[in-house]
Design brief:
Blueprint (H helix, E strand, L loop, with lengths): L4 H16 L2 E4 L4 E4 L3 H14 L4 H30 L5 H22 L7 H29 L5 E4 L4 E4 L9 H15 L2 H14 L2 H19 L3 H20 L2 H4 L5 H14 L4 H6 L7 H15 L12 H9 L7 H27 L5 H16 L5 H16 L17
Antiparallel strand pairs: 1-2, 3-4
Helix pairs in contact: 1-2, 1-5, 2-4, 3-4, 4-17, 5-6, 5-7, 6-7, 6-8, 6-16, 8-16, 13-15, 15-16, 15-17, 16-17
Length: 420
């Protein structure tokens, strides 16, 4: 381990704090106090830019991309798209909203180009440490609730007879990338502790999203990095198809109203998939179950068609202005839907190419960071818990993979500071 890795471990933990320390929730009415740690993350990025060297080519590439996006925001979206779209809100509101997110993502990506590839094990260690902390806090909050009746750091769903921990995260489903990373990295490091904590997180949160993200991440990791032969990959795909078939065959309508937490979680996962294909089921469950991700996706697709944003969207962070006005509490529940609203079909295609390029570069870095990348990618695709605190981690990972400093390498497993 290099001498400079340990100091960056703390630095990485501070950078990750935006996701892991999102809010403090208390009471059976689910009151909360949010923490805006974006400023702290941006401060870490500025410190790193001063402290560490960066490749000139990477610096120019990142700055060039963000400068182009800023010019588009000023001279295309602000000047033409928003005034002609007839969306609620003034063009100035959209401009300020875009500048806030633009500055945050710029510094997150600039921070990424200060990270060397041989420092990625330390970054993974930071994520693992905070993940362990979140699971321990989640268990402690549940013990306190059942012992004293005091609700701290948990979500209480009185109507559904459901209590789920969230630690300092935004919501229980924020455990999705945490459980996935702990499970796979625990297996890579032969750490029974991390595997146990991952399974414990899945068990106590009753989150279909967390279970789904973990399963999909395991599948993708096996498909890309473990399975080599065509026949073996066909078997993996067949097994995945069989699992989907079983999920689709369940009587989710009765399961989703069960008082048993496990059955209700299984029913929510099954209904969440089935309502995507069966309109009759979606209509019959309208009063008892709603797939908010499907609803927000359909609303967003209709909106870009109706307001002329299908091809190029409405500009960065535009949905933060018009979505509350048009649909109330319904917001886009996927980074891909956000990109569709921001930059249209062209933006979605461009981002897809970038994501696939990131998958290609994961073969040249530490395997544990590849797990982190896949977990955050899957979480951002099917979940919005944590918002751009989560999405920024994906942009960070993509920038590290494409522009990261240092030689291309594949370090041995378990080289991190916290190897067990």
């Amino acid at each position: 381990m290099r001498a400079y890795v340990a100091p960056r471990l703390l630095e990485f933990m501070i950078f990750l704090s935006g996701y892991f320390f999102y809010r403090f929730q208390y009471g059976v009415e689910n009151e909360f106090v949010s923490f805006n740690l974006a400023v702290v993350q941006m401060g870490v990025a500025l410190y790193a830019l001063i402290r560490y060297q960066v490749k000139l080519a990477s610096l120019l590439a990142v700055l060039g991309f963000f400068c182009v996006s800023l010019l588009l925001q000023f001279f295309y979206y602000y000047a033409y798209v928003i005034p002609e779209s007839q969306l609620p809100g003034s063009a100035l509101e959209y401009l300020f909203a875009s500048l806030r997110l633009w500055g945050y993502l710029l510094l997150c990506c600039m921070y990424a180009i200060t990270v060397r590839r041989d420092e990625l094990p330390a970054f993974c260690d930071a994520f693992i440490l905070l993940s362990r902390f979140s699971v321990v806090v989640a268990v402690a909050s549940m013990l306190v609730y059942y012992a004293t009746g005091q609700a701290f750091l948990i979500n209480v769903y009185i109507v559904e007879h459901l209590v789920r921990p969230q630690a300092f995260l935004s919501e229980p489903s924020s455990f999705a990338p945490i459980a996935a990373v702990l499970f796979i990295v625990g297996w890579l490091r032969h750490s029974k502790l991390d595997i146990f904590l991952a399974l414990l997180a899945l068990a106590i949160t009753f989150s279909p999203i967390s279970i789904l993200v973990t399963v999909i991440t395991v599948f993708l990791y096996a498909f890309f990095y473990l399975v080599r032969s065509v026949l073996a990959r066909a078997v993996v795909i067949g097994a995945a198809a069989a699992v989907v078939a079983v999920v689709l065959s369940l009587d989710c309508a009765s399961l989703v109203t069960s008082l048993n937490g496990f059955e209700r979680t299984l029913g929510r996962a099954s209904c969440g998939v089935q309502v995507m294909f069966y309109d009759d089921l979606r209509n019959s469950l309208a009063t008892t179950f709603t797939n908010q991700r499907l609803t927000s996706t359909l609303l967003s697709m209709g909106l870009v068609k109706d307001h002329g944003g299908l091809l190029f969207g409405f500009g960065l962070n535009s949905s933060s202005i018009f979505m509350p006005s048009l649909f109330g509490e319904v917001r886009e529940n996927s980074l891909w839907v956000s990109i569709l609203l921001f930059y249209g079909v062209v933006g979605v295609v461009g981002f897809l190419i970038t994501v696939l390029l990131g998958v290609f570069f994961t073969f040249q870095v530490n395997k544990e960071f590849a797990v982190f990348y896949l977990a955050v990618l899957v979480s951002s695709t099917i979940n919005s818990a944590g918002g751009f605190y989560l999405y920024s981690l994906l942009f960070f990972a993509l920038t590290v993979l494409i522009f990261g400093r240092g030689e291309k390498q594949r370090p041995m497993l378990g080289q991190g500071v916290l190897s067990t």
